[in-house]
Amino acid sequence: MTPELAPIARRIETLYREAVDPVGERFAFPRAPHAGEISGPPMVLVIGNHSSGKSSFINHLLGESIQTTGLAPTDDAFTVLAHGEPGERDGRAVVSDPDLPLEGLSHFGPTFLSHLRRRTRPIELLRTVNLVDTPGMIDSAREDSGRGYDFTAAVRWFAERAELVLMFFDPDKPGTTGETLEVFNTALGDLSHKLRVVMNKVDMFRSMEDFARAYGALCWNLAKVMARKDLPLVYTTYTPIPDAAQGKLPLDDFDKARQQLVDEIRETPQRRADTMITRLAEHGARLDLHARIVDAAVHDARAARRGAYGWVAVAALFAFGGASLTLLGEGPIDWQRTALAYAGAAALVGLALVLARGVIRRRVDAIVAGVDALFTRLYGRDLLVREHAEDLRQLWAEIRKRTARTLKSLGPLSFPRLRRKSRKRLRHVIEEDVPALRRTLRGDPPSEEKR
Ligand SMILES: Nc1nc2c(ncn2[C@@H]2O[C@H](COP(=O)(O)OP(=O)(O)O)[C@@H](O)[C@H]2O)c(=O)[nH]1
Ligand SMILES: [Mg+2]
Predict the structure, then answer these.
(1) What pLDDT score does 72 carry?
(2) d(Cα 33, Cα 347) in Å, to the nearest integer?
(3) 245 — pLDDT class (breaks 50, 70, 90)
(4) Is the Cβ atom of 50 under 6 angstroms away from ligand 1?
(5) Domain residue spans of the chain
(6) Is the pLDDT of residue 127 over 50?
(7) CATH of domain 40-266
(8) Cα separation of 5 and 267, whole Å?
(9) Cβ neighbours of 81 (radius 10 Å)
């Protein structure tokens, strides 16, 4: 079984709170909200043609007949299956419950909500994984599915939040047309890393030729709608159903494939923890670079300010000193002349101040415009080490716009310097804590390396 995830999630939260977010706040570096990332188990979304066997597979997986199944389109609802006492709540109740991470679904309107429900059962697997059964996709070429809500957008909503998306195909209809095609194009486009294709019901094939033909057709159709590099893993399997039509192929390998699929579903909590760790590592690295660039800008801007005001001080010294010296050399004090001399000196200093302000502003503008120069200055040496250099450039490309914008709108003089201690803590998260979390996730014993 997967190791206990709650402690890992808590540890990640603590690292954010103590070492990462304080730096992020000080240097105005936003990050996506993470509350809810951790609450509730991860989701596995099951989509596909109607009667491709989605609900039967889910029932088999849970070891209980929860979802209705049948050859006719029996079920046209999105059903979230979760752990709890046996029960069922309709869409409206589900989206208005702040304890459930489903509030966002209220946007899809009343028709959608009447096609949404949440069922709970005291089944162990549902403690760590929530399953989402969906209405069968309609393989018609018609634009409007007549559903009364945006089906593709709803699938997209779930797919974005799911850890795994299973797309079921029926050997009879290995085509990708109509809604299937649209879902591929608009809902799953950039999520193909979570997608697994299931060619189901292989127990119905009467011969190897039939199997090969259907498999070929499916892959051919997938290749038409997806970029080659994104082609997903295809599981060829079936769900054992007592009185289902028996084909003639030996089923051992297909049983194995089903087992692999089930394993992958069981491992989603671990995958999610992995995603959370990766996100922490990426965010930490970006923030570190951002903070160092801003810090360098602050350093330069402050130096420019010190320099300019230094000249003002020198000017003041000369102006007042000069005035005093001339007055002293003239014997008895003449109040009128004295006032005049000092007023002149003050005017001179005022002028120097105005000039200095102008100089500072121009310097600061130049610093802000030259963030790339700051980057090369700070990382010049690292950029020469080749393997590491590409990552660094990549990282900089990801954040440079945002960093430049922040500096421009707030001005480098409004930021504090990056404290050595804060940076050390942030580096510690990236270099020590993240690898340690990964080891915990893999279940390795805590290593006894350096300190
Ligand atoms: N032979 C066979 N029949 C299946 C399999 N999976 C589902 N069925 C049958 O196909 C029909 C539709 O299944 P269902 O789970 O309702 O499909 P859904 O619409 O995708 O949820 C039902 O009559 C099931 O008994 C399978 O792997 N092999
Ligand atoms: Mg169904």
Answers:
(1) 75
(2) 53
(3) low
(4) yes
(5) 40-266, 276-442
(6) yes
(7) 3.40.50.300
(8) 11
(9) 25
